[in-house]
Amino acid sequence: MTTEIVIFAVLFLLVSGLGFVAARWRRPGDLASLHEWGLGGRSFGSWVTWFLIGGDLYTAYTFVAVPALVFGAGATGFFAVPYTVIVYPMVMLVLIRLWSVSHVHGLVTPADFVRARFGSSTLALLVAITGIVATMPYIALQLVGIEAVLKTMGVTGDLPLIIAFAILAAYTYQSGLRAPALIAFVKDSLIYLVILVAIIYIPVKLGGWGSVFDAAKAKFDATPAPGDGILLNSSNQLQYVTLALGSALALFLYPHSVTGVLASRDRNVIKRNMSALPAYSLLLGLIALLGYMAIAAGITPIGKDTNTLIPKLFDAVFPDWFTGVAFAAIGIGALVPAAIMSIAAANLFTRNIYREYFKRDATDAQEARVSKIASLVVKVGAVLFILLIDPQFSIDLQLIGGVIILQTLPSVGLGLFTRWFHRAGLIAGWIAGMGTGLVLLYNIANPANNHAHFGSSAFPLKQLGLDTKITIYAGFLALIVNLVVAVLATLVARAMKAADGPDATQPDDYHADQGDPRVHDLEVASST
Amino acid sequence: MTTPRTDRSDRSPWNWLLLLPIAIPLLTPLYNADEPRLFGIPLFYWLQLAFIILGVATTTLVYRLTRRAR
């Protein structure tokens, strides 16, 4: 145990030091603007972007929760793989348009884009609030990742968690996006190392892959639950597909994903990363299989906290020093996304609430200062969330987060391609989609963990009066309602000749690249 | 989609290739089976992991074929 804790602590502190040094990395003349503090100077090349977005999307929580899901339910937990395969071909052509228009107009957040495109501060505010609300529980969940590791090492009490987050808050405040970008190098190298060792070493110890899967099959066959098993069944296939598709549609609507994309240097960096980021999907797929290895190795979680499963598996099979490295990988893995998410949430607050409603003529330096303080507030909020409220509440909220962020798809995603929607139509669609999503989630019970509401994201179609056992991803249904209402309300608004907002963007803006005279990325965004 | 004529630079017939790695991983009947196993891993798992290669190959191909002359 002591060896584990020492190695964990040393690596953790080393990385924290890096976070502070990051302010001097690529020496910016002046960190006092959101383009520098919040987007790292918008200058990251292919490698940095790969580590940054990879470290941002594949979080510590993902790495503990996905195998826990596979451990508990089997095949349905593997949706993370098709989800992270289809997302890149899906968003490739979308993200380059977002990059271009954001650089021409100096946009920092997805809500900035909506503001410029649809000329509606109300719609932009809705998108910003959706983003903040969806991101907050996600940050809190990163703490759950650290907590699971600490718990397995036998470290109890809230203090270590508070210290870890205080360090994180301090260097994010000082270095902005450069800190997680630099730390991501260390984090991901460690994670790749640990997982490669794990997927070779552990199955050999357990008698080969065949016996790992056979053990898992035996376990699921013995349980009375109908939904589990190492294959899908007739009632959960639609859920599997719609969850993968819905999650893929939602992924790059999250403000922290957009932050990573906008920080890249040019369009080719983004395109190349669409081919390189799936390396993380492979990693995630292999990590998911750790859930089965835990079954075969007879691992049981601490209490009812299935998030401790993977740390316990590592603890059981690895020598002490390597367990320490593995734990550090998870702990540091929590810091990168938590930093980027808090920066993204802070940018949303600064650009779309503070600047829009409180200080229209805010200077770059004022924006950066507000964002830095907001990032602190966000992190304190996340810590309080975890310490004062049942962590299960964060997990529920994160489930809701995926469903609600999807409701910004018509404004942000489709908005990049078409200006056909009326701003009133999009607002109506957002309200309808949010309402539907929340009602559906509220009505999903999960007997497995004694939840009467918000039990999972799999909505039984039976509740709509259909005679079937089939379930579907609640966010997907909500998105369909959202789109239908947005189309109808747009037609009504057009028929009534309701005033629409002006579009500040030109068709050409969506193709501009680095070197284009219109791309002056450090200019103050006066056009929005 | 109402795209004016200037909106041409990202357009390419090659982009349609991107539909393949989006559609195929969503067809559960393709892979929802135990046999044949590969190194003891059921089809469900190894084939879905193999789709990652399909995704990488397609995005790489489309990137190369549509790269703008600088």
Automatic annotation (TrEMBL), chain A:
<feature type="transmembrane region" description="Helical">
    <location>
        <begin position="424"/>
        <end position="445"/>
    </location>
</feature>
<keyword id="KW-1133">Transmembrane helix</keyword>
<feature type="compositionally biased region" description="Basic and acidic residues">
    <location>
        <begin position="508"/>
        <end position="528"/>
    </location>
</feature>
<feature type="transmembrane region" description="Helical">
    <location>
        <begin position="322"/>
        <end position="349"/>
    </location>
</feature>
<feature type="transmembrane region" description="Helical">
    <location>
        <begin position="120"/>
        <end position="141"/>
    </location>
</feature>
<dbReference type="InterPro" id="IPR050277">
    <property type="entry name" value="Sodium:Solute_Symporter"/>
</dbReference>
<feature type="transmembrane region" description="Helical">
    <location>
        <begin position="370"/>
        <end position="389"/>
    </location>
</feature>
<protein>
    <submittedName>
        <fullName>Solute:Na+ symporter, SSS family protein</fullName>
    </submittedName>
</protein>
<keyword id="KW-0813">Transport</keyword>
<feature type="transmembrane region" description="Helical">
    <location>
        <begin position="185"/>
        <end position="204"/>
    </location>
</feature>
<feature type="transmembrane region" description="Helical">
    <location>
        <begin position="470"/>
        <end position="493"/>
    </location>
</feature>
<feature type="transmembrane region" description="Helical">
    <location>
        <begin position="6"/>
        <end position="26"/>
    </location>
</feature>
<feature type="transmembrane region" description="Helical">
    <location>
        <begin position="277"/>
        <end position="302"/>
    </location>
</feature>
<feature type="transmembrane region" description="Helical">
    <location>
        <begin position="395"/>
        <end position="417"/>
    </location>
</feature>
<feature type="transmembrane region" description="Helical">
    <location>
        <begin position="77"/>
        <end position="99"/>
    </location>
</feature>
<comment type="similarity">
    <text>Belongs to the sodium:solute symporter (SSF) (TC 2.A.21) family.</text>
</comment>
<dbReference type="InterPro" id="IPR001734">
    <property type="entry name" value="Na/solute_symporter"/>
</dbReference>
<dbReference type="InterPro" id="IPR038377">
    <property type="entry name" value="Na/Glc_symporter_sf"/>
</dbReference>
<dbReference type="Pfam" id="PF00474">
    <property type="entry name" value="SSF"/>
</dbReference>
<feature type="transmembrane region" description="Helical">
    <location>
        <begin position="47"/>
        <end position="71"/>
    </location>
</feature>
<feature type="region of interest" description="Disordered">
    <location>
        <begin position="500"/>
        <end position="528"/>
    </location>
</feature>
<keyword id="KW-0812">Transmembrane</keyword>
Automatic annotation (TrEMBL), chain B:
<feature type="transmembrane region" description="Helical">
    <location>
        <begin position="12"/>
        <end position="31"/>
    </location>
</feature>
<protein>
    <recommendedName>
        <fullName>DUF3311 domain-containing protein</fullName>
    </recommendedName>
</protein>
<dbReference type="Pfam" id="PF11755">
    <property type="entry name" value="DUF3311"/>
</dbReference>
<feature type="transmembrane region" description="Helical">
    <location>
        <begin position="43"/>
        <end position="63"/>
    </location>
</feature>
<keyword id="KW-0472">Membrane</keyword>
<keyword id="KW-0812">Transmembrane</keyword>
<keyword id="KW-1133">Transmembrane helix</keyword>
<dbReference type="InterPro" id="IPR021741">
    <property type="entry name" value="DUF3311"/>
</dbReference>
